[in-house]
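Continuing from the previous page of notes. For each protein in this section, the sequence appears first, followed by its structure tokens. Read the first protein now.
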Amino acid sequence: MSVDESTVRRVAKLARIAVEDHEVAKLKGELDAILAFVEELSELDVDGVEPMTGVTPVSIRLREDAVTDGENAERVLQNAPAREGDFFVVPKVVE
């Protein structure tokens, strides 16, 4: 697949990238190369290949999802600019 100059300009506009006239030919070549690589990838047989989240296998350590108060309100609030009891006092932002 090959792109033309109007497509390059349209993609640049959609991406909100300022492209000078002398840059269009270079970008056209780069987009053509990217699309050729994507076409090459689409020819691969990936049946039976499990999706991956990264290149190295990683197991995520999970913890119990429990709501707590932090069990140390004094330490948490010691740098608060203002507090009321065990709570932060913040300026009102919604009228």
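Done with the first. The second protein uses the same format. Note its length before scrolling.
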Amino acid sequence: MCLAAPSRVLEVREGTALTECFGQLREVSLLLLDDEVVVGDYLLIQAGGFAFERVEAERAEEALALMAELVAKGDDERRWGHVA
């Protein structure tokens, strides 16, 4: 299973985009996308560096908040699925 965290587009270049997710910058290919990508969009990116889906901002920000919450929890809580 692959988990893709939404990455925010900072800059659009010819066929690629500079994205950011949790402070990490990444240059990704837009080859697999049919839709136009603009600065501020959120993308899901495959491990190989190809963006494969554009995500609505509200949905992306909600997912990022949940991921940040999970990271902030201790390892035991993540492993056993405890809910606070």
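What the second structure shows: Residues 28 and 49 are 5 Å apart (CA to CA). Helices lie at 57-72, 75-80. We return to this in next week's lecture.
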